[in-house]
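Morning, I've got a small favour to ask if you have a moment. It would help a lot if you went through both lines with me. I owe you a coffee for this, so here goes:
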Amino acid sequence: MPLGMIMPGAGGCKVVYVCREPKDMVVSLWHFLQHVHPDLALADVLDSVCSGAVPYGPVWDHILGYWRASIARPDAVLFLRDLARFVGLPFSDEEEDAGVVQDIVKLCSFGHLKPLEANSTGQLDPLVPVPREALFRKGVAGDWANHMTPEMARRLDEIVADKFHATGLTFQ
């Protein structure tokens, strides 16, 4: 979701942004959209992403918006312990010693979240025939390599490099 849609700073809200590798994002979007359009080709989704014709606009604009906000507020790039302090709930020494941090990481893991009933049953919206389970697929970074041709990957990599060259942002 674009930064401008959440009105940062309004009401003292805090924002945590997770940015995915663009090629993985394209494959994930393709799998998701196939629940509505089963015959949709990956090449067509890639074309839409590359041209910026996707819901909420070009993904580069989202990433750059959050990146600029993180430069303005460098305390926004956080690890779990820093995130706890960021939201005003730091871990005590006792909690850290008791393994609370590791427990939270486990509870937030893909493997724990995917099978939860709230994530695996029903539909996202009564008007759109997309099952909730469509939000969780594999949870593996780099799966794009199993779906994209080298030319598709090169095309997206070139656009990403062009869009982010002045920022130093890269994806591995």
Q: What stands out?
A: The first helix runs from residue 22 to 33.
